[in-house]
Design goal:
Blueprint: E1 8-16, E2 28-30, E3 37-39, E4 50-58, E5 69-74, E6 84-85, E7 89-95, E8 103-106, E9 109-110, E10 123-130, E11 137-139, E12 145-148, E13 160-168, E14 178-188, E15 196-197, E16 201-207, E17 213-218, E18 220-221, E19 233-239, E20 246-250, E21 257-261, E22 272-281, E23 298-306, E24 313-314, E25 318-324, E26 332-335, E27 338-339, E28 350-353, E29 361-363, E30 369-372, E31 387-395, E32 401-411, E33 419-420, E34 424-427, E35 434-439, E36 451-454, H1 457-460, E37 463-467, E38 472-477, E39 484-493, E40 499-508, H2 533-557, H3 568-574, E41 603-607, E42 613-617, H4 635-640, H5 658-676, H6 704-708, H7 724-734
Parallel strand pairs: 7-14, 16-23, 25-32, 34-40
Antiparallel strand pairs: 1-4, 2-3, 4-5, 6-9, 8-12, 10-13, 11-12, 13-14, 15-18, 17-21, 19-22, 20-21, 22-23, 24-27, 26-30, 28-31, 29-30, 31-32, 33-35, 35-38, 36-39, 37-38, 39-40, 41-42
Length: 736
């Protein structure tokens, strides 16, 4: 440090590294006279990589003419630190038979010297290998990656490798610092060794009929790692066990095969059994490089069956017997016998049915014949399930017992007739087809499909049956038939051939809906007509209405004799206003022609007899226009002037012709209609003329328009058949 004005130099502050740590002991000092800076002791770069100091220059009297100067001192690195591994022991594993170049693991090391310098440039190498055989691995010098070098790693030969490795700085130069470490590489097992039996033949024995008993243990040899999937054995019986009487399993502790009998063996059937057993591993076999495929190891086991005195045996042990439904009691349905295994025959064996079972059958004690003891019906009680299992006992002379099972199955029979569920129908005039549906309590194949047929030839010509589905058909007439009730015989045949006969009653009614013909069909012969309830009710109501009108007429016009005058009140009561928008008025006009007392005077007359009607008549030498004035005539007065004591009408010779009646009434009726269409101000009133609906058909008088076109004489005969309700109108018209 040099200053032109100052003579004394001092260090105020000393710092090192990024944190600028104070140095209380003073790593540096400065000569006051010269300004030279010296280190007081050795400095470690790894501890203090750099320092910062502030220098002051002062005069002898303490004045500082210069600005303080900041100095940074960097410590240069020296290769004084050897590299070191991050782990004391590196452990890796690799499968055996791995190919060269397969990465095993990676070594990692560090150096405390300055980074990115030659002092921290590291190199790796393998110093030694244990066992000292052909080098099996290599290490990359720069990255430290260990890879497989040997083309064939065999775990069975060398299960693990231990290597001494070195890391050196200065890029591996001999003068560089170095450190060594240990690497252990374990060779993982693969199933490259097939298991093999220690013996290729075994022999054992077992008593007949014994089950779930161990009879033999089999050992194998496997060079793979014990306890691994490549060494655990899996045994299999590949021949001689078609009936599955034997079973072999693996002992997890010893890896041995345990051979057991799971079904009882029969000495009489086979005195010796020969089994062929193979063995494999849990892991699939992997062929090692440069080796040949080995064949599967097998071993032969001879099992000798020892004879034991045993009880009778049923053959088969389970017998199914199908019985037709409703079979007769005592019917022979089968035979179930057992044999003595020692003799091979059934001599001396008796049979019984174990107690507490369904009592459907019995078995003959000596012959084993099976017979029914009741009628088997699937619709009764416990037989609804249709089957029952029965245990049968067979007992030999020595008292030894064998058991067997008989399954009695009741086969459905064709015992029920098909029946039509509904036989009463109503058919209206639209002749909508009737759907007939049948039911059969039998099961398939004795139920559907059904076949329907009309058995009566005459009815079959007018009615037809159309198929709907397996259960139903449509019944409909072939053409036009008269209304009435038809009893149609219909036969229904099920799939088993059983026929059910039924009568279908069809009430072919003149109706729109079936309710119009009542709750059901009425009993009547085809072609005859019977009044329904509504027709009878209508007749009763009509009679009551007619009686009411007669009573009203009698009450208004007298005590039953027609001598009284027809008054205005009587006319008003008998004319019933219907659908009139404006009130009517009393029509009193001189143009209304009154009745005269006799035919000579001109007027109305009455033809008497069993039936009273009104006729228009004319007098001798008089016309309708000449008849005016005169006293008011009543219907009774006209009757009295009919002439003679017998009351016979003499008006046949004074009856007006149709043309005269038309010429007289037409202009007057037109005038009346014209006047009716005017109100008080002589304006036409449309409210007084109303248009009515069509009155219907069936009138004996025919159309009014037709009457206007008739020009022949004597065309008013229809007036003789006027109904009683028109008499009131006639009486009203003759009043003055």
């Amino acid at each position: 440090v040099q200053s032109d004005t100052a003579q004394n130099y001092t260090i105020y502050y000393s710092a090192s590294g990024p944190g600028i740590d104070q140095d209380p002991k003073g790593l540096f000092y400065i000569e006051k006279e010269t300004g030279n800076i010296f280190a007081t002791r050795a400095v470690d770069r790894e501890q203090y990589p750099s320092f910062q100091i502030i220098c002051f220059a002062t005069t002898p009297d303490g004045y500082s003419p210069e600005v303080p100067l900041l100095h940074t001192i960097r410590i240069e690195d020296d290769n004084d630190n050897a590299p070191y591994f991050t782990q004391e022991l590196f452990e890796f594993s690799v499968p055996e038979n791995s190919k060269p170049g397969v990465v095993v693991g990676r070594l990692t090391a560090e150096d405390r010297d300055e980074p990115y310098t030659l002092h921290t440039t590291l190199k790796y190498r393998i110093v030694s290998q244990d066992p000292p055989v052909t080098p099996a691995f290599s290490v990359h010098g720069d990255t430290g990656v260990i890879a497989v070098l040997l083309p064939q790693l065999d775990r069975e030969l060398v299960p693990r490798y231990t290597m001494l490795v070195e890391v050196r700085d200065m890029a591996g130069q001999p003068y560089g610092l170095c450190t060594t470490g240990t690497v252990v590489i374990r060779i993982e097992d693969t199933n490259d060794n097939a298991p093999s039996f220690k013996q290729i033949q075994y022999e054992t024995r077992v008593e007949e009929n014994r089950v779930n008993v161990e009879i033999l243990r089999i050992s194998v040899l496997d060079l793979d790692e014990p306890g691994s999937p490549g060494s655990r054995a899996v045994y299999e019986i590949i021949r001689g066990n078609d009936d599955q009487s034997f079973e072999i399993t693996t002992d997890a502790n010893t890896n041995e095969g345990i051979l057991c009998v799971v079904k009882g063996l029969d000495y009489e059937n086979a005195k010796q059994r020969i089994l062929v057993i193979s063995v494999n591993n849990e892991a699939p076999y992997m062929l090692a490089p440069h080796s040949q495929q080995v064949s599967q190891s097998t071993s032969t086991v001879t099992v000798n069956v020892q004879d034991v005195d045993e009880g009778p045996v049923f053959k088969p042990c389970f017998l199914r017997i199908d019985v037709k439904e409703c079979e007769d009691i005592g019917a022979n349905i089968g035979r179930y016998v057992a044999e003595d295994p020692e003799t091979g025959n059934s001599e001396g064996i008796c049979y019984r049915i174990a107690p507490g079972q369904c009592n459907w059958i019995s078995i003959d004690e000596k012959s084993g014949e099976v017979r029914t003891i009741k009628v088997l019906d699937r619709d009764v009680g416990e037989m609804r399930q249709g089957q029952c299992n029965i245990t049968v006992l067979a007992i030999d002379r020595n008292g030894r017992t064998g058991t067997g099972t008989i399954q009695v199955v009741i086969q459905p029979g064709n015992k029920n007739f098909p029946r039509i569920t509904k036989t009463d129908y109503i058919m209206c005039r639209d002749r909508k087809p009737i759907c007939l549906t049948a039911q059969d309590d039998d099961e398939t194949p004795y139920s559907t499909p059904f076949v329907y047929r009309i058995t009566d030839r005459s009815l079959a010509s007018s009615w037809k049956i159309t198929r709907h589905n397996d259960n139903s058909v449509y019944l409909s007439p072939k053409g036009d038939i008269p209304f009435g009730i038809y009893d149609i015989p219909v036969s229904v045949t099920d799939n088993g051939g059983k026929v059910g006969e039924h009568y279908v009653k069809v009430n072919y009614c003149d109706c729109v809906t079936p309710t119009e013909c009542g709750e059901g069909p009425r009993a009547r012969d085809a072609g005859n007509v019977t009044l329904g309830i509504w027709a009878i009710l209508a007749m009763i109501l009509g009679s009551l209405l007619l009686l009411l009108i007669l009573i009203t007429i009698c009450g208004c016009c007298g005590s039953g004799v027609m001598h009284r005058q027809v008054t205005d009140d009587c006319a008003n009561h008998n004319l019933i206003i219907s659908n009139t928008e404006a009130p009517g008025e009393e029509v009193m006009d001189h143009n209304v022609i009154p009745l005269q007392s006799t035919c000579d005077q001109g007027g109305y007359g009455i033809k008497t007899g069993d039936q009273q009607t009104f006729e228009m008549v004319k007098g001798r030498g008089q016309t309708l226009e000449s008849v005016t004035g005169g006293g008011q005539q009543t219907l009774g007065s006209v009757k009295e002037t009919g002439g003679g004591g017998g009351g016979q009408a003499v008006m046949d010779t004074c009856r007006y012709s149709y043309s005269e009646w038309h010429n007289f009434t037409h202009p007057r009726l037109g005038e009346k209609v014209h006047l009716c269409r005017q109100d008080e101000e002589q304006k036409h009133s449309e409210d007084y003329l109303l248009t009515y609906n069509y009155e219907g058909k069936g009138s004996l008088a025919g159309s009014v328009g037709c009457c206007s076109d008739q020009h022949e004489e004597e065309a008013l005969d229809f007036l003789d058949q006027l109904e009683p309700k028109f008499r009131t109108l006639a009486e009203t018209c003759i009043k003055r």
